[in-house]
Automatic annotation (TrEMBL), chains A, B:
Descriptive protein name: LacI family DNA-binding transcriptional regulator
CDD domains: HTH_LacI (cd01392)
A molecular-function term among this protein's GO annotations: DNA binding
Key word Chaperone present: no
Species: Brachybacterium epidermidis
Amino acid sequence: MARPTIRDVAARAGVSLGTASRALSGNGSVRPATREAVLQAAKDLDYRVNSLARSLRSNHTASIGLLIPDVRNPYFSQLAHVVEQSALEHGVTTLLCNADERPEQMAMYVDVLRERRVDGVIVSPFADAEQALAGLDDDAIPTVFIDRRIPGSPTPSVTSDTSSALDEAIALMSRLGHRRVGFITGPRTTSTGIERIEQVATAADHHGVEVEWQEGDFHTESGHRAATSLLGSGVRAILASDAQTTEGALSAIVEQGIALGEGLHFIGFDGTPATALIRPSLTYVRQQVQEMAATAVDLLVRLRAGEIVTSVRLPSTLVLGGSARPAADHLTEERSCA
Amino acid sequence: MARPTIRDVAARAGVSLGTASRALSGNGSVRPATREAVLQAAKDLDYRVNSLARSLRSNHTASIGLLIPDVRNPYFSQLAHVVEQSALEHGVTTLLCNADERPEQMAMYVDVLRERRVDGVIVSPFADAEQALAGLDDDAIPTVFIDRRIPGSPTPSVTSDTSSALDEAIALMSRLGHRRVGFITGPRTTSTGIERIEQVATAADHHGVEVEWQEGDFHTESGHRAATSLLGSGVRAILASDAQTTEGALSAIVEQGIALGEGLHFIGFDGTPATALIRPSLTYVRQQVQEMAATAVDLLVRLRAGEIVTSVRLPSTLVLGGSARPAADHLTEERSCA
DNA sequence: TTGAAAGCGCTAACAA
DNA sequence: TTGTTAGCGCTTTCAA
């Protein structure tokens, strides 16, 4: 037999279509014995529900969309993994969509998600994303922002608050004797890019430090370029603004054979696998990626249930490694070479 | 108005339901003027097809499933990205599923993919996956193996042939004067794990080298553990079997402060972002990940079209870096410290 | 608790 | 080329 339908199951169990549906979906009451019979018949036939038909009728798909800039970015691939697993715990599958930081591709995916009638969307937006995202609103698809948000938007968001960690970072650089600190920025097209620029500016003011701004775009290449330029102009204290610029900056530093923590103090963002290969170890801003992802799913589920939810802001911390460490801790420092 | 349906579009364009459907889906002939009118009406109404209804009726979903061990593995996240983009070029969306190397989770996802009636599946299998995957066969869902395969299975696969690269690697170690080479294996539950063990064994025989086998499981932790153990027993030539064990082994080497390329020769697998931070640069086996992913999508599309396809095996190469380089090239070597 | 019947939005025959 | 109609497989009223 071709794929058995619920009709076949009902027939085999000797009940009506409706009863079989109630037993299988768990909605509506069924006498235990009847339910058993239906379940057994389904098993005998190796029946599998057609989610297309179910969703068409019931008006929900048990699926959400996750719209991120790029899975290959280790920060987002971790995010994607936790979102997927958290959603699974709610019986919901995730449609992963890579916008590639391109508004057109984001718009295209928004269309796909609308057509597929997903129950909700978790998105990490960027400039010009607002218009692309408007379609979700038109269809009243619950949406949650993750990592980044659109200022002024009523959409609830789960983001991390990096202000105190960045203040600590600048304070540390100041304490290490630096009057000039290089900062590799993120793009002004993202909320995180803008925020971190402002936070660093404020902290620098506060600690009497001058910032050497270097434009970056959250890609490794720009991190590499910016770090090279900063090193060329004699800066000996560098801060990166995300995981990828951190990797890029480190590769430039490593290339030039500069001793981290001695000739140069460096503070990165997010502890990715790559940064584990650095000696001395990396001082970096740690964001709560896992919590962020799990919280976003939770918010979306509650939004879908009709609850009113508010945005969540998770604190981040400065993790001390050898690449920039307060003098007092210097004894514990170990260096592999140089 | 709530979501407009194709009825609304037809009414506005002054045509019948069927005509509107033909104009919108592109199947069947429609007079150009009529088509224009329908498209205009659809645009006016901001109509979006309900893919659930379309798929239910037409019996295809324009979606495929991608079943991989873990997106966080940089090797697979790259694979996932290319698969997604290649599929998009065919107008097909990708459902990304992380099996987490667990048969139950793979079985669960196979169920999900069956219920969602995907048009095809690309999967990177492991031991005990065969039974979980049987469900795809029951539903006659076209399947292609990627990176790994199940020996003896009729399912077409796209894999890389690492034999000559690994032979070169062993030859290089031999030429560098090593009689003993440590090899961090992959799990015997994967075809790649088994193959690489055999290929290394053959090459070692061939070049008169003895292999110090260290069990690994394609995770960073095991790479770290294995490398530590090998270094402890005095081995000074190490080979890893995949991207993750490479990262793990490197972190162990870096931790111990051992000078790569001098006190120790190391050859890794796959050039991930992390390995770009290593000095001297890494000697590694490069697989054609992008081609692999694109080819798998192509195979699946052709399979779906009823073509008979055959498995593809892509050659891989040994990329020379400073971590293990033939003596002749030694002049070009640059070291950052030590 | 169960059955009968309607219909979700669309495509694909079939006729005209 | 177009309109009409049946029906994909399921859930969900409504009665019984």
